[in-house]
Amino acid sequence: MTRDPEAGFTLVELLVALTLVGLMSVAIFGGLRFGTRTWEAGTQRSEELNEVVLVQDLMRRHLVQLAAVDQVRRRSEEHPIFVGDGQSVSFVAPLSAHVGLDGLYQFELALEDGEDREQNLIIRWQLYRADRVPGTTSELDGERVLLEGISEGEFSYFGASERRDEPAWRETWSEQAQLPALIALEVAFPEDDRRKWPFFRVAPQRVPALVRP
Amino acid sequence: MTGRAENRGFTLLEVLIAFAILAVSLGAIFQAFSSGLTQISRAERAATAALQARSLMAEVGTVIPLAAGETSGSFDDEIQWRIDIAPYEEGGEVGIQDFGVTLYEVKVVVSDDKRDIVSLKTLRLGEPP
Q1: What is the pTM of this model?
Q2: With A24 labelled, which of A10, A138, A155, B68 sits at a CA distance of 20 to 30 A?
Q3: Residue A14's CB: how many other CB atoms inside 10 A?
């Protein structure tokens, strides 16, 4: 079949070509959209997880170091070293070594009401001094929100009180001679929130019961 | 076939082959993205299990007594945990038991239905059995 070299495409050829190009671009753009969506979902999920991992690490790091504080108590009886209830826990510990500041700090971890009946987990710190007048502030004090949008949260404490010998879980811990053996924090996120709070327990380091003077 | 070869265009077969190649390569790209997502959820599970294992380790010696034995439980339907405590076998002539204490090997394993996700091991000093 010889063709006129000047002849263009027939309508059918043009339609077929257009359909092919259309199909191809649908496939490619669909692929691109799928790609960006999974990319974003992936980043978001790892960010959500990172947040929880970092918060648990930070809490563990500070709560574990309560040991250093055992000696402080003897010097200043009137300052409680460790007080905890369901919504907050207050303790004395050194700042993490990498912050590069010496000295002991009074920390408070608290679940406080935020927006929309949700709670935030907050950490506060101030330089610990036995002669500090309550209510005063210094430039070394600070506060930071660790977790936002918590639907429910509760601290609890495991240990033996002075009167009861059998250790047990308790809702509050105050005016005890010892530190609790275990501190727990349960956190629940709202149902539409994909974050999860892994099982969290910290055992403050203390002088082992075996080593008695 | 000769003479006008340069104006010939593609045959249907060629176009189909080109399409097949395109489809295969797009499929490979999708595959890469979705396996990325799978990897992220695996990483998520591993990181969560590591945190859970550390918390379980904290429970040994407090809620869970430091004595030889096995304790197990589960966090939800998919994630189980197991704690094995056994006296640690030492070599050498002078053992730690000569000082009135026992060395225990504590092993915490967090696993799902198929395999262990995280396994932590440590040595703890405790009272003799």
Answers
A1: 0.77
A2: A10
A3: 11
